[in-house]
Design brief:
The complex is a heterodimer of chains A (332) and B (335). Chain A is of the alpha/beta class and 332 residues long. In chain A, 32% of the residues lie in helices and 22% in strands. Chain A has an eight-stranded mixed beta sheet, sandwiched between helices. In chain A, a hairpin with a 5-residue loop joins strand 1 and strand 2. In chain A, helix 4 packs across helix 5. Chain B has a single domain, classed as 3-Layer(aba) Sandwich (Rossmann fold). In chain B, a hairpin with a 2-residue loop joins strand 5 and strand 6. Classes of the chains: A alpha/beta (332), B alpha/beta (335). The structure holds adenosine-5'-triphosphate (2 copies), iron/sulfur cluster and magnesium ion (2 copies). One magnesium ion binds next to helix 1 of chain A.
Chain lengths: 332, 335
């Protein structure tokens, strides 16, 4: 069980500006379940993920409050020794940008086996080989031997992403945090990988956080969904319910922006405007300057998170009663 | 090969015409094996990453390239950009040979053909400010913008939806999506005629993705910009492209108008890719659960035959890329 309670984070940018990148985030993910996180680029998804895994650069943090807890252990404020134990073995992290997370001078085999040796210094070579192969197979390399001795630049973009997945899975961690793990992978392989990740969490009772802007992928892999906008949690609840009938106007716009295969040759509907910088958020509702339904009140006050009858939580004064924008990802 | 009718039909006035093109890589093996090879003269084994028959892109046209991970899409882009040296083949950009171009020829080619990369990180120098990054191509090509540098940069930034303050900041201060916009901005600054976009919108969230697609469509209309749009995302490619080619294991297996993709595509690989895409995007059920068997590739026969449901003895012979309809070519015996 992963518990995030009232977590807030403020950063200090290089020019000295203070950026409130996360505000009062509360989320829970039970074991054996997957939480999907969606939201516009820059809304703070990766920052949250890195904070859960203790990977965020402390130097830029100006203030942090709230708590993150996994399997009964408090992670916020843990010392480096605790993190060392947790990372890799209990928490597997799949990075958004494979090229920065991989060492360009090390072969695939060396990088993946390094993680194993970090936790089991005296592991026998055959055992390590076996683990590396299994992880690569799970990550969708149908012929791992062919690529064991390749360097990152010799792999295609999708292969690098799969290599990252293999690295995160090799120690069979209890908590898998996947930050946009399939953006460079074709639909066919995506379907396979998502099925593999699903099987892992269901069969082994693992917990997963899956960050993606692709609501189609989120629907295929997650049980719960948290929608972020500008550092705030605007809607969360069961994935199916939310996608069938988004209640927050931002969620509805996000659904409408998804590229589709049918309704003939129509471009997805872009959301006009852009995400404000973290220090220029509207003082009322964070979405009020782009929202189609914004009223006077929305620009004045920040809506709190309210529960709807079906159990989900929405931070909006005028949640959609549906039909609006709901047709898009609805099926399933 | 280049101007033979069967390779380049349907496109009049092409900006880019690619002939037969081939690129292979040495298979990386252990150090010991490499060491042994030094003395034994045994040739290293090679994999063919790209072996295509040729296609062209018309002025103002968007050609989509689809294919699974590792099918050779980026290799094709890099061979065209001169980043990789082709084993053999030719390609002409506005009449000028691209493959093997060097020195001043290459500079001239690069002014007209720019690339947007798959990995925004690898292509942005972390020690340069956004201003330096965007202005760099102008400097390299010795261009002085008419209304002054500052105005040009501000405009370019605005075009891709970044705030003016971004100029003085470093790439690490931006989120993944914002960084990709910087890359797009840099590619546009030289006003090229052809842009090769390699997974340019894959890392962007859907709302920004939609904006960038709109932007690319607008540029295309305003500037007669041609686009080689590479992506693994079937929905995006279908929406933005006029025509689409499909690569499988380095081979061009199908070429067709974008409108025909969903209902009219005929290659078994294309059909299979579509089924997965329809599941992810439209929630359609998966009919045939794909076997997870690893494909086996041999130099002879159809590249898809080891996992093809339609495969017969005939497929041990490589199928030709046959024209089966207006602008529609397929390489499959049983299409
Ligand atoms: N090291 C850092 N220093 C300063 N600001 C940062 C840093 N890392 C992130 N930010 C800022 O924090 C905000 C959230 O960024 P984050 O990377 O979490 O976005 P994201 O939701 O993951 O977006 P994307 O979908 O593009 O990956 C952004 O405004 C970003 O500019
Ligand atoms: N520099 C290189 N050295 C050796 N092999 C390479 C190199 N670059 C690419 N390859 C190989 O060529 C094949 C095609 O790779 P390419 O990057 O073109 O695929 P892609 O279609 O772009 O895939 P993706 O969708 O995953 O980006 C792969 O098998 C890859 O391992
Ligand atoms: S609170 Fe108002 S502005 Fe915010 S999402 Fe709801 S309707 Fe729109
Ligand atoms: Mg991110
Ligand atoms: Mg690629």
């Amino acid at each position: 069980m992963l518990k995030i309670q009232d977590f807030s984070l403020r950063l200090r940018a290089t020019d000295g500006r203070l950026l409130p990148v996360l505000e009062n985030i509360s989320l829970e993910v039970p074991a054996g379940r997957c939480l999907g996180i969606a939201g516009e680029s820059g809304s703070g998804k990766s920052v949250l993920a890195m904070n859960i895994a203790g990977l965020f650069p402390e130097a830029v943090v100006s203030a942090r409050s709230g708590q993150i807890e996994f399997a009964g252990q408090t992670l916020t404020g843990a010392d480096e020794a605790t993190w060392q134990k947790f990372r890799g073995r209990r928490i597997g992290f799949i990075f958004q940008e494979p090229m920065t997370a991989m060492n360009p001078l090390m072969t695939l085999y060396d990088q993946i086996s390094e993680t194993v040796y970090a936790h089991e210094a005296k592991a026998a070579r055959e055992q390590v080989d076996e683990k590396v192969r299994r992880a690569l197979l799970r990550a969708g390399f149908s012929d791992p031997d062919r690529f064991l001795h390749s360097y990152p630049h010799q792999l295609s973009g999708g292969m690098r992403q799969r290599a990252m997945i293999a690295m995160a899975l090799v120690m069979e961690p209890d908590l898998i945090i996947a930050d946009e793990p399939t953006t460079a992978i074709d639909a066919e392989l995506q379907v396979q990988l998502l099925a593999e990740l699903r099987a892992q969490i269901e069969n082994e009772g693992r917990t997963m956080i899956f960050i993606s802007h692709d609501l189609g992928v989120i629907r295929a892999v997650s049980d719960h969904l948290a929608v972020f906008y500008c550092g705030c949690l605007v809607e969360n609840g069961e994935t199916r319910q939310i996608l069938a009938a988004p209640a927050h106007p931002y969620t509805a716009d996000l659904v409408a922006a998804l590229p589709r295969l049918i309704p003939e040759r129509k471009l997805p509907v872009a959301i006009p405007g852009s995400l404000p910088a973290p220090d220029r958020k509207p003082s009322g509702c964070v979405y009020s300057d782009r929202c189609r339904f914004a009223q006077e009140k929305c620009r004045r006050e920040r809506p709190g998170s309210e529960s709807l009858p079906d159990g989900r939580k929405v931070a909006c004064f005028y949640p959609l009663k549906n039909e609006v924008g709901s047709s898009s990802v609805a099926k399933a | 090969m280049l101007h033979q009718s069967e390779n380049c039909q349907a496109v009049t006035n092409p900006i880019l015409s690619v002939g037969q093109l081939r690129k292979s890589f040495v298979v990386e093996d252990t150090f010991a094996q490499r060491f042994r090879r030094l003395f034994s003269r045994e040739a290293a084994s090679r994999v063919v990453a790209l072996d295509i028959q040729g296609f062209s892109v018309a002025r103002g046209e968007t050609l989509g390239i689809l294919g699974e991970s590792g099918s050779g899409k980026s290799t094709l882009a890099r061979v065209l950009m001169g980043i990789y040296e082709a084993d053999s083949g030719q390609a002409k950009l506005a009449g000028r040979e691209v493959i093997g171009a060097s020195g001043a020829d290459r500079m001239a080619v690069l002014r007209q053909m720019q690339m947007i990369f798959q990995d925004p990180f690898g292509s942005l120098d972390p020690r340069m400010t956004v201003r330096q990054i965007i202005a760099e191509p102008l400097k390299i090509h010795g261009i002085k913008p008419e209304g002054g540098m500052e105005k040009m940069l501000q405009q370019a930034l605005h075009e891709v939806g970044l705030e003016p303050g971004a100029l003085e900041r470093y790439p690490s201060e931006f989120s993944g999506g914002q960084r990709q916009r910087i890359g797009i901005c840099r590619a546009l600054i030289l006003c090229p005629q052809l842009i090769i976009a390699d997974e340019a919108v894959s890392a962007l969230d859907v709302s920004v993705q939609a904006q960038i697609l709109e932007l690319l469509m607008k540029l295309r209309a305003d500037r007669q910009l041609s686009l080689l749009f590479i992506s693994h995302d079937v929905a995006v490619v279908r929406q933005i492209s006029d025509r689409i080619i499909l690569l499988y294991h380095g081979h061009l297996v199908e070429e067709l108008p974008a409108d025909k993709l969903i209902d009219g595509s005929r290659h078994p690989y294309t059909r299979r890719l579509l089924e997965s895409a329809m599941f992810l995007r439209e929630g359609n059920p998966l009919k045939s659960r794909m076997q997870n068997a690893a494909p086996v590739f041999s130099a002879e026969g159809c590249c898809y035959r080891s996992i093809c449901p339609l495969q017969t003895d005939k497929c041990c012979e490589a199928p030709p890329l046959l024209q089966i309809g207006e602008g529609h070519r397929v390489a499959c015996w049983h299409h």
